[in-house]
Amino acid sequence: MTALSASHLIATLYKDNHHWLYHWLCKTMGSQDHAEDVLQDTFVKIMRSKDIFSIQKPQNYIYATAKRIIIDQARRKKIEQAYLCYLAQFEEDWRHPSPEETLMAIEILDQMAFILSDLDERPRSILLMHYIDEIPQTEIALQLNISTKTVQRDLIKALLHCHHHSQ
C-alpha cells in the first residue's frame, strides 16, 4: 500500500471514530485536557502501527489502543508518585539540623534532664512512660502494679514539677 492510502485510512479512522472516542475518554478520565491528550496519543500510535491495514474491527482496535494508553499512563503516574515520595523521604532523612538548632535541642534536653533529676523516681518513670514511650495510663498502672488513679496523681505531680521548674 502507498503512503497516500495509509494517510487516507488514518483520516477515515479518525473521522469515523474521533467523536465517540473523545466522549468516552472525557467520561472515563473526567478531564477534557487528559481526554484530548489520550485521543491524540491513540491516533499517533495507530498511525505508527505496522498492522494498520490488517485492522478487522476498527472501533475495537481504537478502544483497546486508548485503554492501553490510559493503563500505561496510570502505571507511569504511580511510579512517578512512588519516586517522588522516595525522594521526599530521602531528602527528609538527609536534612541535618543547623548548628543553632542542634545547640538549642541540647540545651532543652539538658534543662529537662536537670528538672527530671529532681523528681521522685515513680513520677519521673510514669511521665517518661506516658509521654516518651506513649504508654496509656491504664497500661502503666498494670506494669507498675498501682491504680490508674495513682498514675494520674503522679503524672500531675510530675507535670506541675516540670512547669514550676521551667519558669
From TrEMBL:
SUPFAM superfamilies according to UniProt: Sigma2 domain of RNA polymerase sigma factors, Sigma3 and sigma4 domains of RNA polymerase sigma factors
Q: Where is the RNA polymerase sigma-70 region domain?
A: 13-78
Q: Which CDD domains match?
A: Sigma70_r4
Task: Give the record's GO biological process terms.
Answer: DNA-templated transcription initiation
Which Gene3D superfamilies did the record assign?
A: 1.10.1740.10, Winged helix-like DNA-binding domain superfamily/Winged helix DNA-binding domain
Q: Which Pfam families match?
A: Sigma70_r2, Sigma70_r4_2
Q: Which family does it belong to?
A: Belongs to the sigma-70 factor family. ECF subfamily.
Q: Name one GO molecular function term.
A: sigma factor activity
Q: Where are the transmembrane segments?
A: none
Keyword Transcription tagged:
yes
Q: Where does this protein come from, organism-wise?
A: Acinetobacter larvae
* Domain annotation RNA polymerase sigma factor 70 region 4 type: ranges: 115-162
- What is this protein called in UniProt? RNA polymerase subunit sigma
- Coiled-coil positions are none
Which UniProt keywords are present, listed alphabetically?
A: Sigma factor, Transcription, Transcription regulation
